[in-house]
Structure formats: C-alpha cells, structure tokens
Design a protein that fits this description.
The complex is a heterodimer of chains A (238) and B (176). With 238 residues, chain A is of the alpha+beta class. Chain A has two domains: 75 residues, Ubiquitin-like (UB roll), CATH 3.10.20.740; 121 residues, Alpha-Beta Plaits, CATH 3.30.70.20. Helix content of chain A is 25%, strand content 16%. In chain A, the strands form three sheets. Chain A has a five-stranded mixed β-sheet with strand order 2-1-5-3-4, with helices on one face. In chain A, strand 8 and strand 9 form a beta hairpin. Chain B has one domain: 3-Layer(aba) Sandwich (Rossmann fold). Chain B has a five-stranded parallel β-sheet with strand order 2-1-3-5-7, sandwiched between helices. A two-stranded antiparallel sheet of chain B has the order 4-6. The longest helix of chain B is centred in the middle third of the chain and has 13 residues. Chain B starts with a strand and ends in a 14-residue tail after the last helix. The chains are: A alpha+beta (238), B alpha/beta (176). The interface between A and B is medium-sized, with 22 and 25 residues. The complex binds iron/sulfur cluster and FE2/S2 (inorganic) cluster (FES). Iron/sulfur cluster (SF4) binds next to helix 4 of chain A.
Chain lengths: 238, 176
C-alpha cells in the first residue's frame, strides 16, 4: 500500500507531504524553519521542549510540530507574535532554571541554547535565576556530565537507548527536580552498561555532556549521522 | 552642538568590558570628538555628576555600595546601558549564588589553605548573599550581552546612540 500524499498550508504556502510525516518534517522539506531543541533527526520525537509549537487554524491550543502528523487541508502558522513570546519565555526559563554561565562554558560559541537565545533576540533573562546546587560527574575516564548546563532534552537518553542500544541514561525524579542518571543513579564511571561510544556527548545541545580536558569554548560537537545509521540498520534487518 | 555626556561605571566585573571599550583603537578619537567622558574609571572624576546622557555599566551588583552607585547613576542619567554579561546576567560573579557569599569567602580564603588564612574585610563593603544583574534593581534602556562584548559591538552601540537610532540591533550574544 502506498502512503497517501496530503496537501496543507504552512505560513500561507501550499505544501504537500506523506501522511506519515509531521508538520516539522514537511516544513523542513520546504525550507520553513521552526525552532527546535529536543528534536534530533534520527531519534524518536518526544515533544519535551515545546519550542516547535505552531498554530493550527480551528484549534485554540498550540501544537508541537515535531510530534504533530500533517492532515489534509491543515492551515499552519509557524511565526507569530504569540509564538515568539512563548518561545522567548521557554528559552529564558531554561536559562533561569540552572546555572548556564556561557562565558566559562566548554560549549561557548557552539551551543544550541545560546544560538536560540540569539535567534530569538533574547538579550537578558526576565525571570530571577534559581541558582541550584548541582553536581558535576567527572567519574568517567573520557567524558564529563555537568548538570548545571543540562536542559533535560533527553537526546542523550534516546541516542543511547535507540541507536547504541545500551540505555545507560535515564531521567530520575519529576518536574523541576528531574535529573539525568546513569544506570540506577550511579556515577557514570562505574556504569556497567556504558560502552564509551560518546554518542550522547555529541548529540547534547549544550555543554552538559563534554569530552574531558576541554576548556572554555573548546567543545565542538560532531553530530553523528543518525538518519544514515538508522536507514542502514533497517536495510540489514530485511 | 552639545556634546554627549558619557559616563561609565565599574561594579562587580573584571574590567574586561572597559578594556573592550578601549579596544576600539583609533576610533576612540572619533568618539572622543563627539562625547565628554564625565565619569569613568578611565578619567579622574570623584563623584557621579548630574545630567549624564548615557551611562555604560559593567559588572553585577554584589554589595549595597554597588546598589547605591547604580541607583545614583540611574537617577542622574537619561540612558542606562547594561554593558556585558555580568551586568546583564550576573555571569561569573553570580556563580557564588549557588553557595552564598559566606561559604564562598570561607572556601577561598580559609579552606583553600592559604599562607595567611583571613577573610578580607577592612574598608571593604559587605558582600551580599547573591550577585545580581542590574535589571533586578533599576530599569535598563539597552542590554549588551557578551563576555566581553566585542569592541565593534560597543562602538556600534555608542555610535548608534549618537546617531539617534532608536531600535539598535546589535550582533552579540551571552558569553560572546
Ligand atoms: S545531558 Fe545534554 S543531551 Fe542529555 S538531557 Fe541534558 S542537555 Fe539533553
Ligand atoms: S522540538 Fe518539538 S517539542 Fe522540542
């Protein structure tokens, strides 16, 4: 059975896509940029960060583009004052929630959170900082996890479970107390499941996961070619 | 033509933003032709004067003395610029907010086993529990993030103000 092709309107432009595609995918294929943070091509989409929210005609609520399948006749707006103000608030809340000190961060200049702030024209943080006391786990021989910089996007959790197949990472607690943990909340260096592949480090959008020995601004991530890895696997299984 | 009355103020910062301002090299001469620097660590004026047009403030607010200087500068200036990440976000001085001022002072001056363990106090203002950005205290007219903001960015900002551009779009970011 062939997948039907649907037509819809995004930002006033008529576009089409496969019925299995999301609003984010179809927008991307048509050169329409929607800001994202938790989404990473090749991993499952969780709709965690809410930056990709869009307006859909006939619906009062906003919809996360990365997990919203397209529908025939849908009318989508990706840029509006309302969306912009929410996106700005989300990024500011991420900055206020933990200790993001860009000037002394390993990822300064190569950080998706920093880039988002710049793209959205955020020049200060309206909310008071929480300044939580968070640990840095440097127990692994090659990598470091700095909870101060983590935005809880769970890219590391997903790449480890879905691509590497190790599922070393997970999330403990709920809400503002959430934290990334290795195995059953053990120091990373004593994990019995971690293969040391480093994929989590390279998909992490901020300086939360880095290679040991990197100084300020030195951590440049090389995104693994995840869609390619996934496609090759599907090939083999057949 | 009335020359613009420019002031700069140095609160809890490393002076890097002031260095960046000086880093505009020979363009400083153009700037100097258009402004009077009426108060600054770079000139010899003791008191913050009245009727300042623009004040550029570097650093976070770390003490009551910082706060008083900030409020005076706000009252006496038409435009207030938060210059650099410490003024804009708290940045490095605010890293102590995680543990508080007392614990930080003890860690640095007593527990790190210095030759002569003592917490400096003579003639120094008492550190507030937290170092905070300027906009927690007074309204800000322009935020210029960056650690430090590039000389070009600062020059563009001052040049834009001199030219009367209302909506300045500066090319800078946190941590720059
Ligand atoms: S460590 Fe990095 S990849 Fe993992 S949840 Fe935090 S920000 Fe995301
Ligand atoms: S990218 Fe869609 S919710 Fe994060």
């Amino acid at each position: 059975m062939t997948t039907p092709i649907l037509t819809l309107t995004i930002d006033g432009r008529p576009v089409s896509g496969l019925a299995t595609e999301t609003v984010l995918q179809v927008a991307g294929e048509n050169g329409i940029a929607i800001p994202t943070l938790c989404f990473l091509d090749g991993l499952s989409a969780t709709g965690a960060c809410r930056l990709c929210m869009v307006e859909i005609e006939g619906s009062a609520k906003l919809h996360p583009a990365c997990v919203t399948p397209i529908q025939e006749g849908m009318v989508v707006t990706t840029q509006s004052e309302r969306l912009r103000s929410y996106r700005r608030a989300i990024v500011q809340l991420l900055f206020a929630e933990r200790n993001h000190v860009c000037a002394v961060c390993v990822s300064n200049g190569h950080c998706e959170l920093q880039d988002l702030a710049r793209e959205l024209g955020i020049d200060h943080i309206d909310f008071p900082g929480r300044y939580p006391a968070l640990a840095v786990d440097a127990s692994h021989s090659r990598f470091v996890l700095d909870h101060n910089r983590c935005v809880l996007c769970t890219r590391c959790v997903r790449v480890c479970a879905e691509i590497e197949g190790a599922h070393t990472w997970d999330v403990k607690n709920r809400g503002i107390r959430s934290q990334i943990v290795a195995d059953l909340d053990t120091p990373w260096g004593t994990s019995t499941t971690c293969t040391g592949c480093g994929k989590c480090v390279h998909v992490c959008p901020t300086g939360a996961l880095s290679e040991k020995g990197r100084s300020v601004a030195e951590m440049q991530k090389k995104r693994p070619a995840l869609p390619y890895l996934v496609a090759n696997r599907a090939e083999e299984r057949r | 033509m009335n020359r613009l009355r420019l002031a700069t103020l140095w609160l809890d910062g490393c002076s890097g933003c002031h260095m960046s301002l000086l880093d505009t090299d020979e363009r400083l001469l153009d700037l100097a032709a258009q402004v009077d620097i009426v108060y600054s660590p770079l000139v010899d004026a003791k008191d913050f004067p009245e009727q300042v047009d623009v004040v550029c403030i570097e650093g976070a607010v770390a003490t009551d003395a910082d706060e008083a200087r900030l409020r005076l500068a706000r009252r006496r200036s038409r435009l207030l610029i938060a210059m650099g990440d410490c003024a804009v976000t708290g940045n490095v001085p605010a890293m102590r907010n995680i543990m508080g001022a007392e614990a930080m002072l003890r860690a640095v001056y007593l527990e790190s086993r210095p030759l002569k363990p003592q917490i400096p106090a003579d003639g120094l203002p008492h550190l507030n529990e937290q170092a905070l950005p300027l906009h927690h205290f007074v309204p800000i007219d322009l935020f210029i993030p960056g650690c430090p903001p590039a000389a070009d960015t600062l020059f563009a900002a001052l040049g834009g103000l001199l030219a009367g551009i209302a909506d300045l779009r500066l090319d800078t970011r946190f941590g720059a």
